[in-house]
Fold this sequence. Notes:
With 947 residues, the chain is α/β, with parallel strands linked by helices. 38% of the residues lie in helices and 20% in strands. Strands 15, 19, 20, 21, 22, 24, 25, 26, 27 and 28 form a 10-stranded mixed β-sheet that branches. Strands 11, 12, 13, 14, 16, 17, 18 and 23 form an 8-stranded mixed β-sheet that branches. The chain has a 6-stranded mixed β-sheet with strand order 2-4-3-8-9-10.
Amino acid sequence: MVDSVPMTHTPKPIQPGDASGVQPTSCLPPNADLYIGRDLAWLDFNERVLAQAENFSRPLFDRLRFLAICESNLDEFFMKRVALIRRRIDLGLEKVTHDGLSVRQQRVAIKERVSPLVTRQRSVWVNHLLPRLIDEGIRVTTVEDLPRRYQDRVDDWFHRHVFPLLTPLAADPGHPFPFISNLSSNFAVLLAEPGEVDSRFARVKIPDALPSWIRVPVHGPVGAIQDTTPCRVVRTADVVRRNLESVFPGMKILEVLEFRVTRGIGLEDDDDDVQDLAEWVRASLRHRRFAEAVRLETGDDPPPKLVQRLLEELDLEPEAHYQRGTPLEWGGLTDLTKFDRSDLVSPQWRPIVPTRLADPDEPIFDAIRRGDILLNHPYDSFHASVERFVTEAAADPDVVAIKQCLYRTEPDSPFIHGLLRAAESGKQVTCLVELRARFDEDRNLQLTRTLEKHGVHVAYGVVGLKTHAKCSLVIRREGGAFRAYAHIGTGNYHSGTANLYSDCGLLTCNDEITGDVIQVFNYLTGRSRHTDYERLLVAPVMMRDHILACIHRESDHARAGRTARIIAKVNQLEDPEVMTAIIAASQAGVQVNLIVRGFCCLLPGVPGYTDNVRITSIIGDFLEHARIFYFADGKSDPLKGAWFIGSADWMQRNLSQRVEIVTPILDPAARQRLHRILSINLDDRHDAWDMRPDGSWHKLQASVDAPDESVELLGTFATLRRNAMRAEVEAMQDSRARSLTLRELPRKAVDSAEDVTLGGVERIVGMALLESPWRTASEIGKRVTISPSLTVATGMRLEEGGFIETIYLGRHRVWIPTPALADAIGGPLSLVRGREIGWLTRRISRWLRLQGWRVRRGEGTDFNLMAESPDGAQHGWVIKSDRRGVAKELRDAIGDEWTQINAVGVQSDIIDVLRGVKAKMSISDRRRIKVLTLGTVLRRTCVEEDV
């Protein structure tokens, strides 16, 4: 039993310089045999992200989002890493990577890797996503291909909304070359006066305030993406290009080039001697705006004269020029996901309230005193746990002090509001704000001014070190004494990313841990040089030594024949000392499993060195951001080993140049949950990639006999969601928790008990189904505002009673109401309406296209779809939600040219009519008609498309 596992003390750290168990470096082969450079490993990670956009099983809008994420990652890579490499070359700094490449070799290798990646991005867009968008009624096109009446409306939109914002800038002897801002979309234009030979250069920037794409509906205003489909969509850049003559009236336009420039981000200076960190950050931000260019992007076949001019003015080599077609700004593809098309996006996950915090009437501090609470976001609600911890502390009259580290947060963060309320009520409030959080510097500067204005004591941390720790501390007066409560996490205090990133956190009042947290805040805000921490691992003070000690101890256990295993879940692995220790552990026989989401510089499976190292990467629904560490410590029971979570990756900067916190996990139930998370990661064959000894990554595949409900088949994200829902369902067995949930349900759905044969929750869900039939469980849950687990449990009860039919579409559960549900509730049964018929038509169309059929819509005919198979068979599809005219339409549809007519009925009475009409036809016609139920069609298309 888990409860019987005793809490264990964390291992004592070794003294700095103690390398017992580490093989001498001289025995290691050349770097290239064991390592891969950080930058090339990072590009490997981005290729795994791009693979999500290539995944046919993902909804279309999800694939667009991953393509945009891939581009955003690539932009950041150039701003950070390529800019740094260029700077090292300019300064003559010959720094060698892990795999032995010089700085110039790195630059060449990056170019060789980025060019195919860019080509692959374009292929995904042109060959896969663009045709899918068109199939879904989102007709992406150019302005020139629009009908004339549409072109006039688009031109009118340009003159009303774009032209007033444009500022063309000339470059000639009287005008300096204009500054090109980072990641902006621009046109370079070569002009000439009428009748003159000499050309002139001008630049037009597309304002950042404009959307990347605009919607051109059949009726209504042209503008930003919204509403539903079908409609036409064009690029804003194409609209600007079409109207350049209006920008340069009377001039002759000779050549036009759309281009984009990437600049470095600056802030690379050493700040050890900075006297005023806030002013230094402000100056660095001003410098960043004018940082050197590192990349020029253009479309295909750009005018050579304009390209050469830009390269010269930007001081770029020809190798920095990337031709990538259009669109140049792939991040703008997220605009296309703003259509109201829930069928093209994965259902949004609604986090579960942790069972220990399910009672809103119980103070959170009472729950924490009953034992440590481990959180796993976004499966556990961030709002109901971490946000609640701070907001309750701010309102609690017994709380006397609140301290918090903020690395990234939102402008309108609940944490900020809580800290301000606490300060205004007279509590002592201290906030450590990291001003150098990359890309959030300006926001954090504004945040410090707001906090200080309301009486919050603001600190910037230790000079020369970034504060990356994620912790909060609450001091509360209890029974004549003070008790400390703490939250220590792996992710930022950011409510938005908490729903997108997978992170862990610990709520505790353990005196040893909270005592260490107090010392950490003294270190950050004062002059403390405390190093003797009881429980926490704190960087750069002693975390590195302790991690190395744990790894070396596993080597000792392996050599002594005891259980020896290491499992580490991190974002990145790059630290040389840690990697050397892992190599030595593998040589000693330690089984090492590394779950590395981002770049990993160590190669697994190298004979004689990393034979016992397996490296996995999980990419999918959420961004894997948690850092979890497990060391067996000679114990055969995993729950008796050493467990940690924290903010630090195994990178040199995290262990040596940042203030980081890693906490041991002492509670047996919390350890069991961490063990479950890591086990799921290691068993995953749906979202996991495996690294090979040559540095390549391969997508893992589930075995053919894997059970339907197995981790292997479901993957990490689906399994953890399911576990969270099951935990909530189990909690609902408690009558008090159930009554609290039912109390929050919409009151309008509860009628008198005399005419109700279903329970309250079943009735609410049933009414929603009758209003909006055959929706997924997630969509119904959101519609009636109840939790996912309660929705699923309700669906099971409805299915057992024969009130609904359940159909599985891939990983989604679709509910179809039956006549029994309409009778029980007293509502009409109308299973398919106009929008649902369109959805089903598109689904059948996609399914046929995947099988190589040519498909076209049946406008002006009796058919919803007309399709031709690869061998020339002609099929017509008729989908009916109303029995009126069914017989006539089916008889009219029969013709000699049709190989088969597929008649789809969505209700039993329509099916009966279709079968009756078929029975009265000639034998030859009957053979060409197939009557299909809605359930049959959904299952068939699901098998071919989603599974």
